């Protein structure tokens, strides 16, 4: 009887921890994928001319099926499923190499995450929320070369280890409260500008209620608080103030908004 009770407790804990707050703390493996930390800024990059990955097909799909507010036509994507599958196969067949530079790696992994998230929704469509899908961040659905990773592995085992907090506004979890899905692919040659843009747009959107003394922030800033740094030091308010039109006082009392997990469907 005691063993059954313990087993039930374990099952309850696993189910209860399926939200992003658990995912943010989980030790997902990179499966040996190349990881490089961002050093300094990403303002200029010379793209490797031998790089075989072309993200233009993803841009074409995004511009067709994602509007300027980040809402997605999943029905449209369903009608273009072959094109999405070809792009995912292109990514799988051209895994990152150790000689790729940081912008190339960031662009690849961000696009990989977003494209597979859309594909996951299509596999289960119609669906009201990504959280209605069993193990959306833990199932090994992301193929890179001969490896199978989960979305959680890409986010936590790879992207978060690259020391670039702006990735939190670039990857999309198919939900209303998530950062908008950008309607163009991330590319190495302009990755800094794109990351700046999505950071500014998210922080100043209605997904936060910024005020000087008592802002209500997206729970992304709660779940991933330790990732947000200024000059190498953890500084959530300082990071937000780099982008926010309204500056938060250093002694402000922070509160967090409820997260809307409903599908970000057009």
Element string (H = helix, E = strand): HHHHHHEEHHEHEEHE
Quick one: how many beta strands? 6
Spatial shape: globular
Average pLDDT figure? 90
C-alpha Rg (nearest Å): 19 Å
Distance between the amino and carboxyl termini: 50 Å
Helix/strand/pairing category: mainly alpha
Task: Indicate the proportion of strand residues.
Answer: 5-15%
- Biggest sheet strand order reads 1-2
Q: Which ranges are low-confidence, i.e. pLDDT below 50, for 5 or more consecutive residues? A: 1-27
Task: Characterise the protein shown here.
The chain is mainly α. The protein has one domain (2-256). It contains 10 helices and 6 strands. Strand 4 (229-230) and strand 5 form a beta hairpin. The longest helix has 22 residues, at 102-123.
Which short descriptors sum up this protein?
two-stranded antiparallel sheet; mainly alpha; 10 helices; two-stranded parallel sheet; 266 residues; 38% helix; globular; 6 strands; 5% strand
Offer a concise description of the structure:
With 266 residues, the chain is mostly helical.
Topology overview:
Blueprint: H1 2-16, H2 20-23, H3 56-65, H4 74-79, H5 81-93, H6 102-123, E1 142-144, E2 147-149, H7 151-158, H8 191-203, E3 216-217, H9 220-223, E4 229-230, E5 233-234, H10 236-241, E6 255-256
Helix pairs in contact: 5-6, 6-7
């Amino acid at each position: 009887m005691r063993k059954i009770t313990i087993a039930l407790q374990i099952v309850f804990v696993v189910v209860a921890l399926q939200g992003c707050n658990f995912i943010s703390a989980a030790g997902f493996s990179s499966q040996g994928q190349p990881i490089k930390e961002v050093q300094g800024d990403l303002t200029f990059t010379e793209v490797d001319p031998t790089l075989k990955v072309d993200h233009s097909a993803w841009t074409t799909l995004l511009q067709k099926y994602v509007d300027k507010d980040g809402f997605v036509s999943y029905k449209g994507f369903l009608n273009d499923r072959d094109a999405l599958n070809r792009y995912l196969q292109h990514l799988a067949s051209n895994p990152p190499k150790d000689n790729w530079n940081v912008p190339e790696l960031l662009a690849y992994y961000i696009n990989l995450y977003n494209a597979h998230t859309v594909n996951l929704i299509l596999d289960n469509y119609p669906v009201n929320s990504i959280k209605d899908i069993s193990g959306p961040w833990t199932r090994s659905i992301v193929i890179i070369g001969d490896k199978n990773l989960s979305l959680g592995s890409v986010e936590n085992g790879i992207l978060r280890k690259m020391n670039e907090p702006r990735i939190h506004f670039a990857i999309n979890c198919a939900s209303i409260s998530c950062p908008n899905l950008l309607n163009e692919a991330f590319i190495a040659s302009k990755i800094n500008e794109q990351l700046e843009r999505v950071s500014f747009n998210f922080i100043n959107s209605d997904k936060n209620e910024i005020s000087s003394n008592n802002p209500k922030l997206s729970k992304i800033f709660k779940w991933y608080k330790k990732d947000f740094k200024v000059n190498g030091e953890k500084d959530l308010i300082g990071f937000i103030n780099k982008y926010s039109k309204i500056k938060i006082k250093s002694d402000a009392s922070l509160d967090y908004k409820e997260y809307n997990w409903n599908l970000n469907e057009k």
